[in-house]
């Protein structure tokens, strides 16, 4: 309903061909399909979504981020920062983007001879994540944890309490919160 209201507002704007509308989300892709991509001469940029199947000849352009290379480079930077050869990946909810990130980080780490252990979590409780991070550092000997789709605060706390332990972020810059 929110998308319909938003688009009805856009249709009322004068001179639509002079304006660019930027839509960010998969939900707009679905909505554009429902409209049969009738964009009323409007230029539209759809960001981070699959291109609607019905919009092949419209003024719609789609921008999709690919995260494999960035994750690969994060693994390379991690390998340079640590002295050992073992890292962990702590991941929350899986989706296509998560898989691409995990594949990129794993490929980069393994190309440099690092052992990679992946752990999935559905419990985002800070105590649970802190204990898991502590286990990764203390029991498994990992020097770095790559965090994807999880809150990082408790994982950062576990790293700060140990010498030369790192947390590598994906969703946000963690440099201000730890190391």
Write a concise keyword list for the protein shown above:
four-stranded parallel β-sheet, single chain, three-stranded parallel β-sheet
**Sheet having the most strands:** 4 strands, parallel
Low-confidence stretches: none
- Mean pLDDT over all positions: 82
Cα end-to-end separation: 43 Å
Please trace the helix and strand order, writing H or E for each element.
HEHEEHEHEHEHE
Structural class: alpha/beta
Return Rg in Å: 21 Å
- Count of distinct strands: 7
Number of helices: 6
Percent helix among the residues? 25-40%
Q: Please state how the strands of the largest beta sheet are arranged side by side.
A: 5-4-6-7
General shape: elongated
Q: What share of the residues does DSSP label as strand, in percent?
A: 15-25%
